[in-house]
Specification:
Elements: H1 2-19, H2 23-75, E1 78-86, E2 89-97, H3 106-110, E3 118-124, E4 129-136, E5 140-150
Antiparallel strand pairs: 1-2, 3-4, 4-5
Length: 154
Amino acid sequence: MNKYSNSFLRSKKTLKKLSQKGSTLIEAVVAIFIMSFGILALMLAQVNSVNVSINSANQSEVTRAVQNYVEEMRAKAKISLKESKNNSSIILINFKNYSHFQSNNCAANLNLNLINDEVVSCTISNDGLITVQWGDKVSNPDQSYTYKLQAGQE
């Protein structure tokens, strides 16, 4: 009886080995497939991080350029006097006029160097409000950014 039970156990082990043949290959393919999704997610996160960094650098560049130009505008503003009557007294009010800074080439005056973006519009109003709008016209035309700064603010 011992003799038969031993051979039965051996044949069971042999069957088990035969049934597992190739399963390690399937496990390896599944592991590689799962790992590739993880690597793909990391790559997408890296691309997103680079885009956020570029947008941040562009916003900093626009802020720097507009603030520098506003300082120039404040230094070279035309001062005008306006007379105002209040009851029986006359009050002289002085105000700054920035109309001579208006130009068709606002972006060139600001000297902007943007990464992967371009200036969509740039305006300077009479009261010294500078508005710059920029974005990527090619790959993502719907997404744009705007920065405004008033030269008359003290």
